[in-house]
Design a protein that fits this description.
Elements lengths: L1 H12 L3 E10 L6 H21 L3 E7 L3 E4 L2 E4 L3 E9 L17 E5 L10 H5 L13 H16 L5 E4 L4 H13 L3 E3 L7 H6 L6 E5 L4 H11 L3 E7 L3 E4 L2 E5 H18 L1
Parallel strand pairs: 1-2, 8-11
Antiparallel strand pairs: 1-5, 3-4, 6-9, 6-10, 7-9, 8-10, 11-12
Helix pairs in contact: 1-2, 1-4
Length: 268
């Protein structure tokens, strides 16, 4: 369900309307009860989400008997329901991009954040926890976000939009900063654990930026919609600043991101 929702969210963020999906489903040996259980419930979840978003499945493929070699033998691969979604952008003038468009724009987080670190890159990479509960997700929260986001994009109230997904809020902001070559300064929500706020991957959240002249109107529309939202900071400069702490120059981050594969190959 999350795979479908994230694909739809990406299209909504671009100014489009989701239309249909295809899939690539990789699983282990289906004669294993656990693997077959994974497959059955993945299909059920995808089906429920597709019906809710009105995105029929136009095709796809299934691959079974995928095994990973481990010191103790072989194990089935993690289930990987991969989604490709097609959408329609009816008016190119309403196309939205993820990168920050300039300095001095306010940043708003749409959707409710939670102290949830389940299945995040943070708990896996930093804490070494490879199995944890799925992040928070409710279909109706996702649909409410899509409705509001489509409205504010069509009204041209925002300058950029980018969904919070893999890596959490910090990764979302960093991607927008690198794409636009503009830094940002934010403050975390004191009601939520800082690590969960920055790196948790609970669903149904999007970061938008807005120019000063449209900020009041955007807040008015968001307040009337009843969708949870929070002003978290502003764009500007070349630094990444969180709660007053400087996390470096985006040019250094960009160099690291762009050259990391080359660096890893040289290490070998």
């Amino acid at each position: 369900m999350i795979a479908i929702a994230e694909a739809a969210r990406n299209i909504i963020c671009s100014g489009g309307e989701p239309l249909a999906i295809t899939n690539c489903l990789n699983f282990g040996n289906p004669y294993s009860e656990e693997v077959y259980w994974q497959f059955v419930y993945a299909i059920q979840g995808m089906g429920e989400a597709c019906r809710r978003f009105n995105t029929p499945v136009t095709g796809g493929n299934v691959s079974f008997y995928n095994q990973s070699v481990t010191p103790s033998g072989t194990e089935p691969v993690y289930p990987t329901p991969t989604i490709g979604m097609m959408g329609l952008l009816e008016d190119v003038d309403r196309m939205m991009t993820l990168h920050f468009q300039g300095e001095g724009h306010s940043l708003f987080l749409l959707g409710r954040s939670r102290s949830d670190l389940g299945s995040s890159e943070y708990v896996r990479e930093v804490h070494g926890i490879t199995h944890s509960p799925a992040p928070h997700f409710l279909l109706e929260e996702e649909c409410a976000l899509h409705k509001v986001l489509k409205s504010i994009i069509r009204q041209k109230l925002v300058a950029s939009a980018h969904d919070v997904s893999e890596g959490g809020l910090f990764a979302c902001l960093l991607e927008s900063a690198l794409a636009g070559n503009v830094g940002f300064e934010i403050r975390t929500d004191g009601k939520i654990r800082p690590d969960a706020f920055l790196f948790g991957e609970c669903q149904s959240r999007v970061v938008v930026s807005v120019t000063p002249d449209l900020e009041s109107e955007l807040q008015r529309v968001l307040t009337l919609s009843a969708l949870p939202f929070l002003k978290i900071g502003t764009t500007g400069g070349q630094q990444i600043v969180v709660d007053g702490d400087d996390f470096g120059d985006i040019r250094a981050w960009k160099s690291h991101v762009d050259n990391r594969l080359e660096e890893l190959l040289k290490e070998d």
